[in-house]
Amino acid sequence: MPEDEGELEERIRQRAHALWSEAGRPEGRAEEFWHRARQEIDLAARAPQEFAGETGASPLPEAKN
To answer: Region Disordered: which residues (predicted)?
Structure first.
């Protein structure tokens, strides 16, 4: 089931905060950490489909609502 925008934004916010903390909490780089978090989450969401294609396996079926 696709995640709603509020849930997605919250996951990105939490990951961006973790990345920012790991980097020593630098000031003025919020946008950088937001984009990095978004890329990680987007990649994680696509990984099962991409992996199936690389191995020759059938792609996973899309979730139904």
So the answer is: 45-65
Q: Is the dihedral of CA 35, 41, 4, 2 positive or negative?
A: positive
Give the per-residue pLDDT at 59.
Answer: 58
Residues of the chain with pLDDT under 50: 1
Domain that holds residue 35: 8-20+30-53
- Tokens 């790991």 locate to 22
Per-residue tokens: 15: 């990951």
DSSP-assigned letter for residue 25 = -
Residue 16 falls inside a structural domain: yes
